Amino acid sequence: ANYCDFFEGTEKLLEIWFGRRTESNTANCDLRAIPRSTWEKILKIVKCTIISFKKNDYMDAYVLSESSLFVAKNRIILKTCGSTTLLLAVKPLIYVVRDNTDFDMVIDIFYSRKNFMRPELQEKPHTSFEDETEALDELFDGSAYCLGRINRDCWYLYTLNPLEDFIGVQVPDQTLEISFLAKALYILNSDYVIMQELDPKIMKIFTKEVCSTAKEATQKSGIDKLLPGVVIDDYLFEPCGYSMNGLFKGGYYVTIHITPEPQYSYVSFETNYPQESYSDLIFRLLKLFCPGKFIMTLFANKLSVAAISNCLYHKVDFRGFNRKELQFSHFKNYDLTYALFAKAPS
Ligand code: PUT
Question: What is the Å distance from ligand 1's center to 158 Cα?
């Protein structure tokens, strides 16, 4: 990662589920059969590298030079920040899956990201969501959406278009994603803008100036106590920046990425850990990072215990934050809540 003048912490996120049209030949239906050297080739196209690896019985988890890769039996989650070119790797990835496994269909696909802080620094096809959509449309029959305000903070999603015979993901599944951000404070009658950063004292923890190891940063910040039973693989970048992958029994993961520089501080949190309500977890995350604002999205399918959670966000009150936006979408297999909260003026 390059931390000179600016770094785009905002990630591109791709999740693809694979399946088979028939019940036969399922012996070689495990994406974890794909060797590390093949992932390295795919990641070269994305312009990032593997810097750490951990696995359990359910998932392989790679910490990358720019974020994370998770590989489960029939699902891949690739999250990359900076000026990586994630979408250039989708076609090669589909070929790799076809050549290394007996999967013969994509069950569902989700490509999503928040609007970039500096979109002009991105490379093709990430130069705009329209360009990204065009690249994905060459491979899939999908639908593209924008949630939030197209002229301010917003969140883009591309997902598979449900056809008549669309089956989709048939296991309980949920994903909570949160972006913690600084908030711009405009001074009336002037062009003067002050950024209400993510708490600078906390952000400092994720620098080599304050912590000499990733473990120290994980413990000092309290990340190790966020979710019980997690096995953590963490990395502290030189001179600053932090990534962690966490694995749980049952195929659950958590991943946190921190860009601590005050001018463009950014924290992302993501998990598929099932909860009926995520309020407690979000409270703890807010205490941990003290953002100026945050965007949360929650996907949950009908089989998920989190399905109920999707109904809660019109009621939930995160102390010290005002809910500025709330959108609820109903897709064929998943319900999605998008919400933006901003720190209440003190
Ligand atoms: N990031 C998209 C998540 C979809 C549901 N697992």
Answer: 11
The answer to whether residues 208 and 238 touch, using CB atoms and an 8 Å cutoff, is: yes
Asked if 163 contacts 102 with a C-beta cutoff of 8 angstroms, the reply is no
Amino acid at 160: L
Question: Residue 266's closest CA among 298, 291, 297, 234?
Answer: 291
Which residue's entry shows tokens 């932090």? 242
CA–CA separation, 259 vs 267, rounded Å?
6
pLDDT per position as a tens digit, 138-185: 999 999 999 999 999 999 999 998 887 788 999 999 999 999 998 776
Within the chain, residue ranges assigned H as helices are 36-46, 90-100, 129-137, 200-205, 214-221, 279-289
Ligand 1 nearest-atom number relative to CA 77: 1
Which residues does 271 contact at the CB level (< 8 Å), separation at least 6?
Answer: 175, 176, 227, 252, 253, 254, 255
Q: Which residues are catalytic?
A: 8, 11, 67, 81, 243, 257
Gap between the Cα atoms of 219 and 240, Å rounded:
16
Q: How far is the CA of 174 from the centre of ligand 1 (A)?
A: 7
**pTM assigned to the model:** 0.95
Q: Which residues of 7-24 are buried (b: 16+ CB within 10 A; e: fewer)?
A: bbbbbbbbbbbbbbeeee
